[in-house]
Model the fold of this input.
Amino acid sequence: MAHLPTERLTLAETGALALSLAAGDLDRAEDTATFLKALERNQRVWRTLAHIAASRAWQFPNERQVAYALSTVDKGANDARISALIDINREVSNILAHGDDIARIRDRAYAIWEERGHPQGQDMEHWLLAEMEVSSG
Done:
């Protein structure tokens, strides 16, 4: 088995990962129950990030992004709003991660998920494998 990186993620990197995974969950939801679960997870991630961003005076996510993300449920979760929310998640994730590698890692993690037959609940494992591949290649 390959050794996992011993470096700890920064708080911003952890936020980037959480947003990216939440975006993926929303994007892949194929039924109502899965979608509602993904939407609830996304709301928790945004509430947590909003609290951290305010307490640490981060520029991102900004108040407008937080307000949009948290109001999605209240204003009706139609396809256009969910698509915009996924885009915002990914945009803020990239900013928090401070690099272009996050997109390559996300794409590789998705490919790993597909290669393994779309298993649920293994997001972090797929992400770490992808991160190792991208960083070593």
